[in-house]
Inverse folding.
């Protein structure tokens, strides 16, 4: 695919959005289904920067990314995503946050020590054996820090200590959660075309994808706004 051809397709999608044309969903879906176009956009993010700015306004729900810290933060910026959940490799240094809603995912055994040394601008998501975590102690260690959990399965929520004050829960689509969870909920799914992402009985604060799928997610979720995209 020539650069001119891809630029023409991006311009067509952007023009359809700005003209409030229902055809924009077709343009977005065609880009999302084209692996070569997606690969080019990942290598040359400036080609579609204006388009992704507009897609953020059209998404029916927030879109977050979850991956290694550096690539997650870069993708959050390049694709105009709403949040990033970052993981660190051993001995990897934590970069500075990229705007709002940057969270570090840590194992339960190192949650308190990580929390005490974390720079400002980061929230903390605790993963692993939540039954061993004192969220009251974590709150005392950093009372102003945003704090949440990653739920590995349906039993994870039952292992959280009673009265834990959480800001965010990250769970797989299909997980069983309380009808009124005392935190925002992000759903993790493998495809942006699952109706249950948008039609959950528990209100969703957003959905979570990995870096390789982020651009396709951004395109397809925005196409659903028009009612003509894949549902």
């Amino acid at each position: 695919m020539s650069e001119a051809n891809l630029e023409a397709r991006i311009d067509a999608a952007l023009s359809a959005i700005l003209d409030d044309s229902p055809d924009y969903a077709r343009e977005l879906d065609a880009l999302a289904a084209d692996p070569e176009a997606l690969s080019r956009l990942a290598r040359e993010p400036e080609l579609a920067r204006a388009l992704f700015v507009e897609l953020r306004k059209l998404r029916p729900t927030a879109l977050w990314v979850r991956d290694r810290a550096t690539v997650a933060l870069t993708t959050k910026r390049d694709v105009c995503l709403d949040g990033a959940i970052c993981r660190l490799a051993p001995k990897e240094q934590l970069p500075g946050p990229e705007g709002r809603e940057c969270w570090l995912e840590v194992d339960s055994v190192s949650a308190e020590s990580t929390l005490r040394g974390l720079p400002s601008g980061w929230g903390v998501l605790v993963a692993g054996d939540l039954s061993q975590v004192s969220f009251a102690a974590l709150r005392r260690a950093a009372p102003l820090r945003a704090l949440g959990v990653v739920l590995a399965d349906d039993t994870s929520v039952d292992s959280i200590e009673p009265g834990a004050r959480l800001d965010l829960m990250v769970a797989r689509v299909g997980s069983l959660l309380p009808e009124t969870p005392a935190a925002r909920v992000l759903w993790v799914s493998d495809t942006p075309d699952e109706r249950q992402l948008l039609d959950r009985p528990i209100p969703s604060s957003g959905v979570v994808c990995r870096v390789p799928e982020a651009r396709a997610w951004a395109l397809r979720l925005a196409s659903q706004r028009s009612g003509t995209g894949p549902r």
User: Anything to note?
Assistant: Confidence is low (pLDDT under 50) at residues 226-231. The domain at 60-225 is CATH 3.20.20.70 (TIM Barrel). The helical segments are 3-18, 24-32, 35-43, 49-58, 69-78, 111-117, 135-141, 214-223.
